[in-house]
């Protein structure tokens, strides 16, 4: 499997991207990686790694996309950016999948523009992973679409289901609709309509799930629009960080606490590992014709390594083909909408 | 100050409501409380407390509102419920403010129906309080309105500002709009329009704030629609609980951890206190003509005590008069909308 890596994307690129690629190749013999970006910089990074025998190559790109650049500007003016060249490489079949830790808005726009959508999909969505007391759940959409219609949310459910089933090996994943009450009729206009679509479909629909229940593992896939999903994701990140800081401060304020902290540190480390985004590597942009992984801007080499492995896994398991077939079988949501009308 | 307490509302009523009322009276000599509900039950609870000298009375109500009852049904069929009688008491000037830990949808509908809105307010909103690393922030709307227009969010900002200033003594509170990016143009249709309204007003507007920043204390008032706000609140509750459980599990799985836990426990308790809703007692339904406090269904006696003190405080500081005057002065948002058009 050949992965195109936007080696210039992310806050710590290209050091962490090159490092992450090398780590991924060391762990998986079936992989090869094309580092896309400034040839001189990337060669120099690669030389430090002393890994000539690995299945790694460089493809030059003269531009980079800035973190605050608008998708439109980038699409027009950055046709030789590391991101664009990586996506073009997938389009021309020079790679099977793409990974970028760059400007996520530009990654989405570029993937959509160059690679296009799976037939029947109206809006691609970001599928993020979050930890629960039992394991994990898939949050979809985590930020690709800020204003959605019921049929979009329905399609997110179908895509999230395929992702949870094939990548996280969850049998018959339970789909929950993120809402503000468990009763069927609770929610806003969007979720009330989506509720009806999901209830009348073949999906294993668990009904509305509340924010307080999702970390208890009440659903394997949690569906919402990208505005709500992104807020849910960022609030969780922010609160987890704030809690860790509050606890540390509490501990350091008292001597017994400081002593306790020595014992406690390992538990805190294991806990952090469970809630650490870098364990999951990144979030696929589902609904695009080829696997595209969006990684956190702050990605470490470990996050890049895991994102590369995730991209390869989505390709190997044929997740996009599964989604495509489900939409062919009449799970696009359009039929259900038509029946209800 | 006279507080009407829906003594039958909440999961642990009437034991916790009566207990909370007695605690509030012991702490504040200027208070009197009317317990509204089943006379026999309340008398029996009060007798246990042995507090005849306190400024407490009982007003009989023959019905109670169930937690799963719809607002419409309750309004029609429960005209002698403990909630309704408590609200009626405020309306007839038999009390200055009202507290209920009952069905929040019914509390809102009843308060709106019986007491009405402050002139100029389009939608009353729930103002919840959440902890930050520096102190706290006010989240408005925390769940009263699921589908909002920009002018509603603008009004929430004005009400939240008055609440933060007069109840939490924050000088010139910074107002943030909950969104998914710090740039002005980021967000969904609703927040992009609201952004313009807030920027063109006299409000101390700090721009968009992201979920990851709110716990760092970037804004004193965080404005959003009630759907997003309720999800933000519930996710925070759920995640904080899940993190506490994960940590405890991590600790109990290893011997050194168990030892560490002994030292660590006090820190954990102090931390819990900071994130404990019962410290704040409840959330006012701002925009109603009289102070109405909605408390958590799971309210302990401490939460009820603090809710009663909050109700008294809002009345004493004249927060609703402040809001009313600001709307008279042209801060209803309507003028700003008109200017932009």
Give a brief outline of the structure:
Two copies of one chain form a homodimer. Chain A contains 14 helices and eleven strands.
Describe this structure in words.
- Two copies of one chain form a homodimer.
- Chain A is α/β, with parallel strands linked by helices.
- The first copy, chain A, has two domains: 1-121 and 287-316, Isopropylmalate Dehydrogenase (3-Layer(aba) Sandwich); 124-281, Isopropylmalate Dehydrogenase, CATH 3.40.718.
- Chain A contains 14 helices and eleven strands.
- In chain A, strands 3-2-1-4-11-10-5-6-9-7-8 form an eleven-stranded mixed sheet, with helices on both faces.
- In chain A, strand 7 (175-179), helix 7 and strand 8 (205-210) form a beta-alpha-beta unit.
- Chain A is globular.
- Chain A starts with a strand and ends with a helix.
- At the A-B interface, helix 8, helix 9 and helix 10 of A face helix 8, helix 9 and helix 10 of B.
CATH architecture title of the largest domain in chain A: 3-Layer(aba) Sandwich
User: Considering the protein shown, what is the CATH homologous superfamily of the largest domain in chain A?
Assistant: Isopropylmalate Dehydrogenase
Question: If you compute it from the alpha carbons, what radius of gyration of chain A comes out, rounded to the nearest whole angstrom?
Answer: 21 Å
- Average pLDDT of chain A, to the nearest integer? 89
CATH topology of the largest domain in chain A: Isopropylmalate Dehydrogenase
Q: List the chains of the largest interface with their residue counts.
A: A-B, 61 and 61 residues
* Mass-distribution shape of chain A: globular
Q: Measure the end-to-end span of chain A.
A: 45 Å
By secondary-structure content and strand pairing, the structural class of chain A works out as: alpha/beta
DSSP summary, beta strand count of chain A: 11
Regarding quaternary structure, how should these chains be classified?
homodimer
Helix content of chain A: 40-55%
Q: How do the helices and strands follow one another from N- to C-terminus of chain A?
A: EHEHEHHEHEEHEHEHEHHHEEHHH
Report the sheet-strand fraction of chain A: 15-25%
**Domains counted in the coordinates of chain A: how many?**
2
Task: Name the strands of the widest sheet of chain A in spatial order.
Answer: 3-2-1-4-11-10-5-6-9-7-8
* Low-confidence residue ranges of chain A: none
Largest sheet, strands/sense/barrel of chain A: 11 strands, mixed
CATH class of the largest domain in chain A: Alpha Beta
